[in-house]
Amino acid sequence: MASVTLLIVFPFLMAYAAARDLLTMTIPNAVSLLLLLGFAAFAGATGMWGWDLLSHLGAGAATLVVTFSLFALGKIGGGDAKLAAATAVWIGFDQLAQYLVVASLAGGALSVAILVARAHPLPSLLGRLPFAIHLHDAKTGVPYGIALCLGALIVIPETVTWARMMAS
């Protein structure tokens, strides 16, 4: 059960969040909720309780405080804030800094790529796709869920969570 949750459910939800953010510039609340429920199933299946569980929940809570503050300042979207926090619950404090650095670097690269693309006319083939038109608009933000997904998928194999799954 634990391996299914970590190896299938977690990456699927992260990829869905990234794709949904790219196509619609929104990340549904259900994705973050399902990530939390998946973590609860994982924690139960691996016997994660006590301080270990509280540490993972604390990583999510700390991330939510920071990302919600960024949301309140208009720097990131609400879906991004919730996704980062739900992902932090999976990552835990042991690799949280690494996750945030990798996601930030990926987000920076994504932002530069989008700015470069916006500086050029949209190719006619892409001009037929509503999401491409929307993404090309300079008033549109950056689908940061892509960077959060990439950061999570790169970092998760380095976590205690992953080691716990491999041990069960």
TrEMBL record:
Membrane topology note: Multi-pass membrane protein
Record localization: Cell membrane
Stored InterPro entries: Preflagellin_Peptidase (IPR052218), Prepilin_IV_endopep_pep (IPR000045)
Residue intervals passing through the bilayer: 27-45, 57-76, 96-117, 138-156
Cellular component per GO, a single term: plasma membrane
Keywords from the named record: Cell membrane, Membrane, Transmembrane, Transmembrane helix
A Pfam family assignment: Peptidase_A24
Domain Prepilin type IV endopeptidase peptidase: 8-111
GO molecular function annotation: aspartic-type endopeptidase activity
Taxonomic superkingdom: Bacteria
Protein's recorded name: Prepilin type IV endopeptidase peptidase domain-containing protein
Organism from which the protein derives: Methylobacterium bullatum
Lineage: Bacteria, Pseudomonadati, Pseudomonadota, Alphaproteobacteria, Hyphomicrobiales
